[in-house]
């Protein structure tokens, strides 16, 4: 199942009306992940991070830039760093790359 198909399943989308938007969200999320992790590629075993962050970003459309929002008594707080909760997993995956700059010559 593709990343977009997984996201659509989690969001309960059964049509193709949001596919262009989801493609843009995927491209931006993957680019952000690569910059965050300082990697050129995303290992397949970390695709779940892309899927989960895409769902968060989709659900935040219209609330970009806000740290919290209250509507009719329902309060929502947004993470400012989408990848912070995955930081330990990302560092563990790329441990040798993160430590490379600190090795003695």
Automatic annotation (TrEMBL):
At the top level, the lineage of the source is: Bacteria
Name by which UniProt lists this protein: Phage gp6-like head-tail connector protein
Lineage of the species this protein comes from: Bacteria, Bacillati, Bacillota, Bacilli, Lactobacillales
């Amino acid at each position: 199942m593709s990343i977009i198909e997984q996201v659509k399943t989690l969001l309960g989308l059964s049509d193709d009306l949001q596919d262009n938007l989801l493609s843009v969200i995927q491209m931006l999320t993957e680019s952000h992940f690569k910059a965050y992790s300082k990697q050129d590629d995303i290992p397949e075993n970390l695709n779940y991070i892309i899927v989960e962050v895409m769902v968060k970003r989709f659900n935040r459309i219209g609330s970009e830039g806000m740290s919290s929002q209250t509507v009719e008594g329902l309060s929502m707080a947004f993470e400012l760093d989408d990848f912070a909760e995955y930081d330990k997993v990302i560092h563990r995956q790329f441990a040798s790359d993160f430590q490379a700059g600190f090795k003695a010559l």
